[in-house]
């Protein structure tokens, strides 16, 4: 089930998604259907920071609907670069997980430009 917080007011989006997912019958679509709009599960009023990625990770099992986030055991290079800057700027230790769900819950909108 695709959930978008109602405050985003994305009317007409279901038609666009239906067409894209129909195309996914013949072409690979990532992330999985239930994660496509995961970045929009939080209300816009809670967003404090926007990080824009280019495309979802192309490897099945890695794209999870939040830009740069991954369920994979290995941290993707692009996220390693973000972590390097994060540690340098904040002095915090390097995160050990590629799951950025906690960032999303704290107001970081992790959006891929293809949306």
UniProtKB/TrEMBL annotation:
A Gene Ontology molecular function term of the record: uracil DNA N-glycosylase activity
InterPro entries (UniProt xref): UDG_fam1, Ura-DNA_Glyclase_AS, Uracil-DNA_glycosylase-like, Uracil-DNA_glycosylase-like_sf
EC number: 3.2.2.27
Catalytic-site annotation from UniProt: 55 (proton acceptor)
GO terms classed as biological process: base-excision repair, AP site formation via deaminated base removal
Catalytic activity: Hydrolyzes single-stranded DNA or mismatched double-stranded DNA and polynucleotides, releasing free uracil
Domain Uracil-DNA glycosylase-like: 42-114
Keywords, comma-separated and alphabetical: DNA damage, DNA repair, Hydrolase
Regions crossing the membrane: none
Family: Belongs to the uracil-DNA glycosylase (UDG) superfamily. UNG family.
Purpose of the protein: Excises uracil residues from the DNA which can arise as a result of misincorporation of dUMP residues by DNA polymerase or due to deamination of cytosine.
Name the record gives this protein: uracil-DNA glycosylase
Organism for this UniProt entry: Corynebacterium heidelbergense
Species classification: Bacteria, Bacillati, Actinomycetota, Actinomycetes, Mycobacteriales
């Amino acid at each position: 089930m695709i959930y978008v917080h109602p405050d985003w007011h994305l009317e007409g989006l279901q038609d666009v998604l239906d067409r894209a997912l129909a195309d996914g019958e013949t072409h690979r679509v990532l992330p999985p259907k239930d994660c496509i709009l995961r970045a929009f599960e939080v209300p816009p009023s809670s967003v404090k920071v926007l990080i824009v990625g280019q495309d979802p990770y192309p490897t099945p099992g890695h794209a999870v609907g939040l830009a740069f986030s991954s369920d994979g055991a290995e941290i993707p290079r692009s996220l390693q670069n973000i972590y390097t800057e994060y540690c340098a700027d904040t002095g915090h230790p390097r995160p050990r997980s590629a799951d950025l769900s906690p960032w999303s819950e704290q107001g970081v909108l992790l959006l891929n430009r293809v949306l």
